[in-house]
Amino acid sequence: AEASPQDIPAILPSILNVIRLVWKHSRFYNTADRLTGLLRKVSNEIINRCSASISLSDIFDGDVESVMGALRQSILAGEAWKRAYRSTTTAIARAGERAWDFDVSSIFAQIDAFVQRCRDMLEVCEAQTQFAPRTKLPAFGGARGPEISKSLVDIQTSFHRLVVSLRSLEYNILDVKATRWHDDYNSFKSGVKDLEVMM
To answer: What's the Cα-to-Cα distance from 172 to each of 6, 176, 187, rounded to whole Å?
Structure first.
């Protein structure tokens, strides 16, 4: 409940060992439904902890360096959770214990969606580093200098409009239940592609 994303991978094996003990020894809680629910709660808590470390306002303001680190750590935490689960199921099978044949998709569907959302936001950050007006443009010489400067300013202005449209979305972008994100993100991505062609 207090871990930062980079702390999560180290915590997961001990959490899974405790869940394994519950599965092995509990008389009342060791059903597939209850353990699946418990594992899903771990997934949700990983998402909560990672979301708490990601500042959307920093992304939209163009201050992306630290946020990119948090996004990468969040992706690693989500991937570590799946790896830790797989290694635990392998250890259980090797030990000859009652197998964990839980519905893996229900445990990991949200974490997979969250990891993908973090990858999407990393692309938004990379677009910020490429197109956001951070410094004054250099003076371009020659007959086409003013034309080039105007084109670059137009690209920056168009990009700013794309970012404003993302900022003004009426739902939490990191909420994996917000399925409208796919359409909104695809329109942002296609806008960025057009800007790359113009550039």
So the answer is: 23, 9, 17
